[in-house]
């Protein structure tokens, strides 16, 4: 018998806690949509936010919205519904979209670090290196790379045979919990998972950390004002990077085992990061705040 649907056990089985999950995550998800929508609209309509940094921030907010949407709505609906089933096809779509937008977010963060590196370390050549044409090509490469990554993930998942238990101890479909249910030896599949998702997370994290170290080192020769501005931007980027990559590395770079804490760790990067990104990038950024005030106050 092959399994045609799975049962998502969600964050908790307790009916009282489920109501709390519904309320809290509905607020988080709506705040995520609102925050990222404000950034997307502000960047698209503002004349002052035309630099590559905001071009990439636009795509980060877009990726955040979609990434959150791959998991949050089902978590919220399932918290109140009696029947927490997800069909096999829906489950596979969720694996694909989750990894697609997750990978997109990681690669856009790398582009933002590259942009800051060029702006701070090669200020005189910045406009020629990071011109609109180059930025557009980089974003196209991000889309292609995300597609390749998620196709690899879905290829691994589609090869798994499911013939018995169908309860996923998670709030969304991902390879790790699905490996537990497969009726085959999943050692090789897990190795491939670690070498795909695990490597992307770890290598990207190292690249980002290195870029910030290089940036901080090169700030010695800048004026106090320039140092303060660059530090402010890099600090906000760094907070986002740690919040996103810490949980990612914990989940995807280890032997085939699932822990009860995995679900809470996953909440950090599937729901926490997309919610915090707009806050971190706008509250720490005067230009975005000014553009938002101008855009929304003029309309009233």
Note down, in words, how this protein is organized.
76% of the residues lie in helices and 3% in strands. With 300 residues, it is mainly alpha-helical. It has a single domain, classed as Up-down Bundle (Rhopdopsin 7-helix transmembrane proteins), CATH 1.20.1070. Helix 1 runs antiparallel to helix 2. Residues 35-281 form the G-protein coupled receptors family 1 profile domain.
Following the backbone from N to C, one meets helices and strands in this order, namely: EHHEHHHEHHHHH
Q: Which stretches are poorly predicted, pLDDT < 50 over at least 5 residues?
A: none
- Widest sheet: strand order? 2-1-3
Give the biggest beta sheet: 3 strands, mixed
Essential attributes:
76% helix, globular, 300 residues, mainly alpha, 3% strand, Rhopdopsin 7-helix transmembrane proteins, single chain
How would you briefly describe this protein structure?
The protein contains ten helices and three strands, in the order βααβαααβααααα.
What's the layout of helices and strands?
Blueprint: E1 5-8, H1 15-45, H2 52-80, E2 85-87, H3 88-121, H4 126-129, H5 132-158, E3 167-168, H6 175-181, H7 187-218, H8 224-252, H9 262-283, H10 286-299
Parallel strand pairs: 1-3
Antiparallel strand pairs: 1-2
